[in-house]
Design brief:
single chain; alpha/beta; Rossmann fold; 2 domains; 4-stranded parallel β-sheet; 4-stranded mixed β-sheet; 14 helices; about 35% helix; disordered N terminus; TAT_signal
Length: about 350
């Protein structure tokens, strides 16, 4: 999928708050339940002994249930989670988004991009279709946005996806500040939110957005489903499995359901036979369209004997979801929507 870092399918300024925010997200009964679970169930671990993705341990060592939000300080220079340093002379006001994560973060911060190449803003939980229609679209699509068109908007910051837009650097870096991002987990997404908030001075908005997301995540992980879930994406009978580490939304699922799908690298994926062997209870489907409308992937597979034998298909638990949010959004607002929709079904 060109707009994702997934395996290929097979076949202005505000004053910063001082002091950390904290919220107790469960009552005594929930705390007791969590304590019992911690004592009786070992924390899942990866091959190297570190906590597995979605197991409840954040990169900074805190558990997912710890939703303390540290204060954000305004800054003219930040170094992001991938070691990229970004510096601006003043708070960026004219921002062009080449990746939907940028649109997600800007919406959380109360900023509208001067141009975008994403359809995420049209979602009703973002700007909505009417307001989104007022935001110019960068020609060239996600894969090949035109540098001249980008610069025509006089941006003081352009944000793109590292593995797709990094090649644009020679055309943009002398004319504007160019920042490429590459989120692999929700922790990365939160870090990018905090970094852009520091640069734009929208620290209070970012702290509130982070708190809202962490609260949602802690609530979902406090009552995980024992059902086996799966997210697949694709078009025209070609599909891939969304896995933690390569898909940010999928990285949420091991903490809220049974999600036995691990990344197989850039070229690896799963077959229908393997999916059938796992006895999937709930199937979330992201139908991707590459120019023009595509038939829902779940309809394309209809009639395939293997597909029809899946438990989720037989029991009517196949759910088409919005790929703009589930596959491309990757930010705290999109991930909050994913959590709400997923937990309502699981």
């Amino acid at each position: 999928m060109p707009s994702d870092t997934r395996p290929a399918p097979a076949g202005a300024g505000r004053t910063a708050r001082r002091g950390a925010r904290a919220l107790a997200v469960a009552g005594a009964a929930a705390l007791l339940l969590g304590a019992c679970a911690a004592e009786s169930t070992p924390e899942p671990a990866g091959a190297d002994g570190t906590p597995a993705a979605g197991s409840g341990a954040a990169d900074d060592g805190r558990s997912a249930a710890d939703i303390t939000v540290e204060p954000i300080e305004p800054a003219r220079e930040i170094t992001d989670v991938r070691g990229t340093t970004v510096a601006t002379d003043a708070e960026p006001e004219r921002i062009v988004c080449l990746v939907a994560l940028c649109d997600d973060i800007l919406t959380e911060l109360g900023i509208v991009p001067v141009a975008t190449n994403s359809e995420l803003l049209a979602h009703p939980d973002f700007l909505g279709p009417e307001a989104a229609a007022e935001v110019p679209i960068v020609p060239g699509g996600f894969i090949a946005p035109e540098p001249e068109a980008i610069l025509s908007h006089r941006p003081d910051l352009v944000i793109g996806l590292e593995d797709t837009h990094g090649r644009l650097a020679p055309s943009l870096e002398d004319a504007t500040v160019f920042w490429t991002v590459q989120p692999e987990s929700w922790e990365d997404s939160v870090a990018y939110l905090r970094d852009l908030a520091a640069l734009t001075g929208r620290t209070e908005e970012a702290e509130e957005a982070e708190l809202a997301f962490r609260t949602r995540l802690a609530g979902a992980e406090a009552e995980p489903s024992d059902r086996t879930a799966l997210i697949i994406y694709g078009s025209d009978e070609n599909f891939g499995v969304a896995t933690p580490g390569t898909d940010v939304a999928a990285g949420l699922f091991p903490g809220i359901a049974h999600y036995p799908w691990e990344s197989r690298g850039v070229e690896g994926t799963y077959s229908l036979e393997e999916i059938l062997a796992e006895d999937v209870d709930v199937l979330f489907v992201e139908t991707l369209s590459f120019g023009g409308d595509a038939a829902p992937l779940s309809e394309v597979f209809a009639g395939n004997p293997l597909w029809e034998s899946l438990t989720a298909v037989r029991e009517g638990e196949v759910h088409e979801v919005d790929p703009e949010v589930w596959a491309k959004g990757r930010g705290t607002r999109s991930l909050g929507i994913v959590l709400d929709e997923a937990t309502a079904i699981l």
